[in-house]
Amino acid sequence: MSIEGEAWNSIVEQVRSLKSKEEQAVQNMWENFFTDGSLFGYSRVFKEMIPQYSLQIGVTKVKADILLRKGSENLFVVELKRFDHSLAEKNEQQLTSYMLCLKLSVGVLICNKIYIYVFSGGKTERLEIPFVKDDLNGANFISLLKKGNFSPDKVMEFVVAANERKARIAEIEDVLQKLDVAALIKEYLMKQYAEDEIGEAMRKRGYPVSASEEKPAPAVNKKAASGPVFHYGGSLKAKGILTDEGFVLLKGSEIKAGLQNSAPGYTVQDREKYANMIVDGVTAEDILFSSSSAAANFVGGSSLSGNRMWRTDKDEAPKDFKKSRE
Question: Which residue has the higher pLDDT, 149 or 189?
């Protein structure tokens, strides 16, 4: 693991320890991070890291939580919120107003995740980085914003490239979902085995043998839950639990109206299948999904990562919790 990767994992651990602390504790923590020589390396003494930097926006006097500088040159500005707060539009507007006032092309908003903002080609690009260990973007965040490494152009390239990669992965997931995997498996096995033998084996392994053959939805068994309650990370209020059968979206969870173009084919099918279980945008009963990602897609109506969208009160992702049980 790289030095930045180890440093990122250390930040994640410390952030989790301050999950429910007030903003001043968050402020102190990030001031220490930015002035730590093993992390970002800015000097407090030489005012390369300035906390509570005063700004005049119109007739209003405001204070940016942290301004990072090199000599007399402003590099980027940071806005901080409590680690248990989700992204809000007013926070975005607050940060971008600071960026415009200071004539900066890079800004960072830190709440329950890190959001890097860059002004690029007349538009604003945003990259989301969750506080998850071994996250490559987290390690790059440290490397790119470190004193001596910082370059607005490099940060911009990183954000644009990371978002493009995310979009490509979503496209691949969509293609994989649309592929008739069962037919491909059957075609491969037909070279060596009889069709009825293949069909029986595929049914035993849970594969549909034909397009019209669907597995019945298994009954929800909450007694088999193997972990705590997970909360959906977006603006919607939704909860779920892990069970031996999969991921259960709990009754009373909010569901986003409509579907985005990125929504996988199976999410479209799930929305149709469970339409009678959604009343006024809220689930009327528990719904079992094969994975946390399938549940996240169902809630958000798009292609989403379950390990990014679902978190426990201790900021554990489904994959983190599974690892802790192994």
Answer: 149
